[in-house]
Amino acid sequence: MDSFYSVFMPKAIFYGRNSFMKVGEVVSERGKRALIISDKIMDKLGYVNQCQEYLHESGISYSTFLDVNSEPTDNYVVKALELFSQTDCDVIVALGGGSCIDTAKAVAVLAKNEGDISEYIGNKKVAKNGATPLIAIPTTAGTGSEATDVTVITNTETDVKMMIKQPAFMPDVAIVDPLLTLSSPKNITAATGVDALTHAIEAYISKRSHPLTDTFALSAIKLIFDSIQRAYQNGEDIEAREMMSLGALKAGIAFSNSSVCLVHGMSRPIGAIFHVPHGVSNAMLLPAVLEFSMDECYEKLAEIGRYLNPEMKGLAKKDIAINLVREVKRLCMNLNIPNMKEWGIDIQAMNKVVKKMAKDSLASGSPANNPKIPTEDEIEKLYQICYNYNMKEEIQI
Ligand code: NAD
To answer: 0.90 cut: is pTM over it?
Structure first.
């Protein structure tokens, strides 16, 4: 096994309250005409207008694409790329949640490279040229996409959520302003926050974790544990929002340089087939998948448990690990995370496609990074467990 590791992240990261106002200066250093890729909710909230004003003040002209919807498809990429070319843009600003940022990443790469986005899956095609400079400005504290070399785009022909990971998809600059997350409603705060927690936990227990990703992952887990319920209960709690934005950013850096694992592998088919938002589909799987995996990663889970609760230091690692999984479960319960049934997935509809879901999950490659690698049958069983999962039930060992 190699004994050296690497870490990649954007060339610059601006973060903290009011960092959004850096966008004009950052863009003017990289181009003359920007394509803003965002959505209608960002427009309604006034964020798009604010961005346009900042660009205008820096002498930058712009076009605006507002047609991204949650869980972006290859169709949005085609349309936004058309606008980019027709309006002679040379720099891209992504303003929104992971959906806007991922769409923008695909456009930034395809603007300088050939082919459709689906050709890049599994590195069948690799971007030879660097991407158009992309400035990523997240408005959710969740995906960490602002600092990852990953884009997730649904292929509308195959109904597969394609996870594409190549260096060219890394944004040039991330601007992480927690004030942009203050408007995030309770359900989105909960789902995107548990998404970030899942990134951090999976990055930490992954077979591909290493010391530097561990540092980012552990501190992300602590930031998120300490602030997610505060941000959920009081959306105006700026300090909690700040901790969540920083936690999500660190979790993104962690998983992009380590990996995600089984939760993400199982989550994408739920999103692609039943159109469950990514954060929710991760959250509805996280406790059950940790219960499945924990006997192969007691040590790493105990390290997290000790970091969160130093008074546990004297206890056996298995007990600390079980307690941590209990805490994750309690957190999901307090955030009103639904199981698959409560979300409204029909059991017969799921049973019809559960084999495809398990196959697609394994094919994505993420389960192979899990500390306990599941078989296809085990993944099918896990989907059944998650369908009726009861967050209130005690963990059976
Ligand atoms: P999202 O971008 O789909 O946004 C969810 C909803 O919240 C949208 O309607 C959006 O308009 C709204 N919203 C966003 N910010 C808001 C705010 N501040 N106030 C009010 N409403 C707001 O959600 P997401 O969870 O950020 O992104 C999900 C997508 O990201 C999925 O497609 C997922 O697969 C992908 N993803 C990508 C990566 C990566 O590294 N590229 C990692 C994880 C997930």
So the answer is: yes
